[in-house]
Amino acid sequence: MAVPKQKTSRAKTRSRRAQNLKFNKPTVSVCPVCETPIRPHHICETCGFYKDEPVLVAEGYSELNEE
Ligand SMILES: [Zn+2]
User: Fold this and answer.
1) How far is the CA of 37 from the centre of ligand 1 (A)?
2) What pTM was estimated for this model as a whole?
3) Which of 18, 48, 63, 64 could lock onto 56 through a cystine, CB 3.0 to 4.6 A?
């Protein structure tokens, strides 16, 4: 049976395992209406729009537009 010639150093082991500890940054896109960062395929929480269409209308939003 093949046996390692030398004990793997602590630094070597830890630097190898550090690759698995990386975590992926969440994907962020930008709202086309108000340009705040949003989660992709989600309604913008700031303006309530999804792909240029109003889905959630915030309180006072229509009143602000009429004035
Ligand atoms: Zn928005």
Assistant:
1) 8
2) 0.47
3) 48
